[in-house]
Amino acid sequence: MYVAVKGGEKAIDNAHAWLAEERRGDTAVAALSVAQIRQQLALAVNRVMAEGSLYDPDLAALAIKQARGDLIEAIFLIRAYRTTLPRFGGSAPVDTDAMVCDRRVSATFKDAPGGQVLGPTFDYTHRLLDFKLAADGEVPAVPQAPIQTAPTPHIMSFLDREDLIQSEPVGPETPPDLTRTPLELPADRALRLQALTRGDEGFILGMAYSTQRGYARNHAFVAELRIGAVAVEMDIPELGFAIEIGEVTLTECETVNQFQGSKTQPPQFTRGYGLVFGMTERKAISMALVDRALRWKELGEDNLGAPAQDEEFVLYHADNIQATGFLEHIKLPHYVDFQSELELIRKLRREAQTMQEAAQ
Predict the structure, then answer these.
(1) Alpha-carbon distances, residue 173 vs 54, 170, 195, 236, 255 (angstroms)
(2) Are the CB atoms for 231 and 99 separated by under 8 Å?
(3) Contact 228, 99 (CB under 8 A)
(4) How far, in Å, CA of 156 to CA of 169, rounded?
(5) Over the stretch 15-55, which tens digit does the pLDDT of each residue have?
(6) What is the chain's alpha carbon radius of gyration, rounded to the nearest angstrom?
(7) CA–CA separation, 337 vs 329, rounded Å?
(8) Quick one: 109 and 162 in the same domain?
(9) pTM exceeds 0.85 for this model
(10) Which of 57, 95, 299, 317 has the fewest CB atoms below 10 angstroms from its CB?
């Protein structure tokens, strides 16, 4: 057991004051504004929104500032705030076919209908430090890309026309909500995808990498990776139709995976799927790989004993907030536990010494 520290209120208050001072840093340096964090640390903001399960760039930027850049602490702050919000209803499923794509690439078809849109990406940079940024230099202006006006079809739809991709079973009309109901196993795919999309990016990446190194039968191609804005709609019973209530930026990834077929199904491809808030393509690709690895049972495949195929291992360890809480609680006072174990060790040593003396 662990016990609360008594008589330490003044020390705790001083710790809070010291934390605030450290967070601010040198007052001779201008303070970061929430707007600056939102605009210039957008990828960090996107991760906090995704793993915090709350789409609000301003609040995510505020959490990053308050957490001194500790993204897991910022995610914790966002999840805690989320629990205080009222729930008015559920939105309709977003239509990613109608996404206004800032980036859309395919590793399977060079001349994909709708074209390859490289977008803002690190993929083709030289990974050299840009010292102009240290000198507060501005980046040169670049030509604006043409605005997308027509929907961009999904690559998978072309494989589907030839019946080369496994058809997806129809899921529940209203899947369980992981943010409101604790995870229970076995979990259906909708619940697994929720757990993966808000799971720790580093953990999901590690699991995905393990599948590529052979710890699961998971040779994948990125059929399509797209990033862009989609409309969010909500059904209004009084009106009898859905209205647009806003838009969100999403990253969507679909992978094509090999599948041998079975006695009842011809040889065909299967898919992995990832969908994450913001521009978070590393997470979306990782999520798609792990999603496919976890589908071994429903596809009638053998369990190779790979970590990424173990539903309990993946889903129960992906949540960085639960992991952080359990990990960091051991730094709290455990005086009673330790004293009992200390006394046990002393007793065992006395008994062992007595036995040695008696043997002599």
Answers:
(1) 22, 8, 18, 17, 24
(2) no
(3) yes
(4) 15
(5) 888 888 888 888 888 889 999 999 999 999 999 999 999 99
(6) 25
(7) 13
(8) yes
(9) yes
(10) 95
